[in-house]
């Protein structure tokens, strides 16, 4: 058959190509170098590409082995292993990073809207609601959230305007309002408003997993007050958001309950997890994940209670201006 | 140092009560605090120059006191209690060694030093701004939420000289709400430019027979919170609560260009008197200076508290100023020079280093060259 034959000869012919290219430097770059992408036949081109890839892999392995041998040969005198570059390593230094010794920022934080909570003058009381007419998944998510956050109440929205709900909440001593926005039967947004006159944060919520979807989960969360862990909120904006999350939970955790809520910030995404831990020995901990998990991304932080039209914004995420660098983060 | 207070180019007042002087040439910010203990109810809500030579600043605080800061001495010299009405100051002005204050509840008061025969008028509730006409210092304009623009003559405080009328009902025959957030008097004529919380920029002319605005332009969808006139007085720079800043032409009422970079609400904008520079500060704790002509961000300074108001000095020769540090360090340098002169010279590559204060960083101007991915040679 002509085709396999021609393919074999084509392969043979093109196998001589690299060989030709190897001999070419002696002949002063004539004929011109041969590239796989110039083969018009897709099968042959794919075959040549696979061969090239295998060759690259072999070379890489050989280099690795060589380097490991050199390292072992040097023994103690070997230079330290080079640290691989990650996006977190290469993060552009943010000038708003809070210095722990800074007095001005410390004063600012000690007198901001969360000061009554941190001075233990108020006890958090949370109202959880959704957008209008929520579907089952969102309803179950709200119920599970209310088991996690102590002193929280879930109310059905009934199409009421948030600007009218807020004065009523304030008069009934609520300190925070959480609104879970739903789109196409899944929750996708979170508005967290600190009530007396505090900032309102608007998040995009993704990867929501209810309790039954979590593998290897523990039993129901108990009524004990959990501890709160806030990871990696380094900038000034991060501090404000971190304090907002901290003010949702009561200030005194009950360590008997061994429950912990974690807000972990990495690359501007905030991961929420709820665990129960047990110390098996001095250094070994066992953890069980309870409760729902979700991921948040901050869209805007507005000064004052919820007023998206006429309120003043402290920070807005502007995609085309702020997302230009992959190594710059704001939280 | 106190004596270097005069070298500060921009004065910014923050919500925590700190007055910050920023030197853009040396990229330094210094804090001047009235008392050693900071108090949140001394937050700055209004600032103005005390005299035309810009050697004194009047600062209005949330608790109703007006402080005088001297730029020559670098400290607060006196403080007056200007209580009256409710709410914070929304405007401060100086006329004939007396202070004119306006409070949010509508009380416009002229305080003379004798603390007697203070003249006051009620301007209407919900005032957002009060400005003095630089050409006629006895005229002030006020405006606010559901409080139309009024121009008052302080010698005849019973009736405003000019009271603006609302525009006609819109296309649904509904009354257009009024919310004047900021206003400026145009030099050379009696015209007044205002920006509203309903994203409109309006131009009023008291000398024309119509009391309605002569020109109206809309920009964006968010309330416009600050306004300033450009040097040529034919366009204005407005800032909104969403962090959008734009230059709007007053003759045609159209948008000329937008200035980018803000992440939070703009609280105060001021243009330089002669140079094409505009300084702006806002809730995201940054002070930015843009060049109006080519929309470039010239300086960006992180000041750690939310900023409420700013004043720009009319000093012209910024670039000519010496970036070198001051005299005591020059002595140290001379000693070092003698030391180095005594040693042999070795041919080395000179590396230029910029002295940058760790608190303040200037952003790198110009685009970064795109980093090419290192590609191994293809098949």
Automatic annotation (TrEMBL), chain A:
Q: What GO cellular component is one of the record's annotations?
A: nucleolus
Domain Brix per the UniProt entry, residue ranges: 124-307
Give the record's keywords alphabetically: Ribosome biogenesis, rRNA processing
| Predominant place of localization | nucleus
Where are stretches of biased composition, namely Low complexity? 1-22
Q: Which Gene3D superfamilies match?
A: Probable brix-domain ribosomal biogenesis protein (3.40.50.10480)
Comp. bias (Basic and acidic residues): 70-79
Q: Which Pfam families match?
A: Brix (PF04427)
A Gene Ontology molecular-function term?
rRNA primary transcript binding
Compartment annotation: Nucleus, Nucleolus
Residue intervals passing through the bilayer: none
Q: Which GO terms describe its biological process?
A: maturation of 5.8S rRNA; maturation of LSU-rRNA
Residue ranges of region Disordered?
Answer: 1-37, 50-85
What is the role of this chain? May be required for ribosome biogenesis.
PANTHER family registered for this protein in UniProt:
RIBOSOME PRODUCTION FACTOR 1, U3 SMALL NUCLEOLAR RIBONUCLEOPROTEIN PROTEIN IMP4
Q: Know the name of this protein?
A: Ribosome production factor 1
Q: What species does this protein belong to?
A: Chelonoidis abingdonii (Abingdon island giant tortoise)
Lineage of the organism: Eukaryota, Metazoa, Chordata, Craniata, Vertebrata
TrEMBL record, chain B:
Q: Does the keyword Metal-binding apply?
A: no
Query: A GO term (biological process) for this protein?
Result: rRNA processing
Q: List all membrane-crossing ranges.
A: none
The UniProt record lists the keyword Nucleus: yes
* Compositional bias segments (type: Basic residues): 367-379
Going by the entry's taxonomy, the superkingdom of the source organism is recorded as: Eukaryota
Q: Which residues form a coiled coil?
A: none
Provide the Gene Ontology terms for cellular component.
Answer: nuclear exosome (RNase complex); nucleolus; nucleoplasm; preribosome, large subunit precursor
Q: Where is this region: Disordered?
A: 319-339, 358-379
Locations listed in the record: Nucleus, Nucleolus
Keywords for this protein: Methylation, Nucleus, Phosphoprotein, Repeat, WD repeat
What InterPro entries does the record point to? WD40/YVTN_repeat-like_dom_sf (IPR015943), WD40_repeat_dom_sf (IPR036322), WD40_rpt (IPR001680), WDR74/Nsa1 (IPR037379)
Chief place where the protein resides: nucleus
Q: Which PANTHER family does the entry mention?
A: NOP SEVEN ASSOCIATED PROTEIN 1, WD REPEAT-CONTAINING PROTEIN 74
What is said about its interaction partners and assembly?
Answer: Isoform 1 interacts (through WDR repeats) with NVL; the interaction is independent of RNA or pre-60S ribosome particles. Isoform 2 does not interact with NVL. Interacts with MTREX; the interaction dissociation in a late stage of rRNA synthesis is required for appropriate maturation of pre-60S particles and depends on the ATPase activity of NVL.
What is the protein name for this chain? WD repeat-containing protein 74
């Amino acid at each position: 058959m002509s085709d396999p034959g021609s393919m074999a000869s084509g392969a043979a012919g093109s196998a001589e190509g690299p060989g030709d290219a190897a001999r070419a430097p002696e002949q002063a770059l004539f004929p011109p170098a041969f590239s796989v992408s110039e083969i018009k036949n897709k099968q042959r081109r794919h075959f040549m590409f696979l061969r090239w890839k295998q060759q690259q892999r072999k070379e890489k392995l050989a280099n690795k082995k060589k380097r490991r041998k050199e390292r072992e040969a040097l023994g103690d005198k070997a230079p330290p292993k080079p640290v691989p570059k990650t996006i977190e390593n290469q993060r552009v230094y943010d000038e708003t990073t809070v210095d722990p010794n800074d007095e001005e920022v410390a004063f600012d934080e000690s007198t901001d809207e969360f000061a009554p909570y941190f001075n233990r003058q108020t006890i958090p009381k949370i109202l959880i609601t959704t957008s209008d007419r929520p579907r089952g998944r969102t309803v179950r998510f709200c119920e599970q959230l209310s088991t996690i956050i102590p002193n929280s109440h879930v109310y059905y929205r009934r199409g009421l305007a948030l600007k009218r709900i807020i004065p009523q909440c304030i008069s009934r001593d609520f300190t925070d309002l959480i609104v879970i926005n739903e789109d196409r039967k899944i929750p996708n947004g979170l508005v967290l408003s600190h009530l007396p006159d505090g900032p309102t944060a608007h998040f995009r919520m993704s990867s929501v997993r209810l309790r039954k979807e979590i593998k290897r989960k523990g039993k129901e969360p108990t009524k004990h007050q959990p501890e709160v862990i806030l990871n990696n909120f380094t900038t000034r904006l991060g501090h404000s958001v971190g304090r907002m999350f901290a003010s949702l939970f009561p200030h005194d955790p009950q360590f008997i309950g061994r429950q912990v809520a974690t807000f972990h910030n990495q690359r501007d995404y905030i991961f929420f997890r709820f665990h129960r831990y047990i110390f098996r020995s001095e250094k070994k901990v066992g953890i069980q994940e309870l409760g729902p998990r979700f991921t948040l991304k901050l869209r805007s932080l507005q000064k004052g209670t919820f007023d998206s039209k006429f309120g003043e914004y402290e920070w807005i995420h502007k995609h085309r201006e702020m997302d230009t660098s992959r190594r710059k983060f704001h939280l | 140092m106190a004596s270097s207070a005069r070298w500060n180019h921009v004065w910014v007042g923050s919500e925590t009560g700190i007055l910050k002087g920023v030197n853009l040439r040396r990229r330094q910010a210094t804090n001047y605090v009235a008392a050693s203990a900071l108090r949140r109810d001394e937050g700055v809500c209004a600032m103005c120059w005390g005299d035309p030579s810009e050697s004194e600043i009047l600062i209005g605080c949330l608790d109703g006191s007006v402080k005088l800061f001297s730029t020559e001495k670098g400290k607060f010299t006196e403080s007056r209690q200007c209580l009256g009405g409710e709410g914070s100051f929304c405007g401060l002005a100086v006329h004939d060694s007396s202070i004119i204050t306006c409070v949010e509840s509508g009380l416009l008061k002229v305080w003379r030093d004798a603390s007697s025969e203070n003249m006051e008028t009620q301007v209407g509730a919900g005032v957002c701004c009060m400005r003095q006409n630089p050409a006629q210092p006895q005229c002030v304009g006020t405006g606010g939420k559901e409080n139309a623009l009024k121009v008052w003559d302080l010698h005849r405080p019973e009736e405003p000289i000019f009271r603006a009328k609302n525009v006609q009902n819109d296309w649904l025959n509904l009354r257009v709400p009024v919310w004047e957030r900021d206003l400026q008097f145009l030099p050379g004529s009696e015209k007044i430019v205002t920006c509203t919380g309903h994203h409109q920029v309006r131009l009023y002319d008291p000398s024309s027979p119509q009391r309605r605005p002569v020109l109206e332009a809309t920009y964006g969808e968010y309330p416009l919170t600050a306004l300033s006139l450009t040097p040529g007085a034919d366009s204005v720079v407005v800032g909104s609560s969403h962090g959008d800043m734009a230059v709007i032409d007053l003759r045609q009422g159209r948008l000329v260009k937008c200035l980018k970079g803000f992440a939070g609400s703009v609280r105060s904008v001021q243009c330089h008197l002669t140079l094409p520079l505009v300084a702006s500060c806002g809730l995201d704790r940054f002070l930015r200076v843009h060049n109006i002509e080519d929309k470039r961000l010239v300086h960006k300074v992180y000041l750690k508290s939310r900023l409420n108001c700013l004043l720009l000095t009319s000093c012209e020769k910024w670039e000519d100023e010496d970036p070198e540090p001051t005299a005591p360090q020059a002595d140290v340098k001379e000693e070092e020079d003698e030391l180095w002169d005594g040693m042999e010279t070795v041919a080395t590559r000179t590396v230029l280093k910029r002295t940058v204060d760790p608190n303040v960083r200037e952003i790198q101007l110009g685009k970064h060259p795109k980093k090419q991915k290192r590609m191994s040679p293809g098949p």
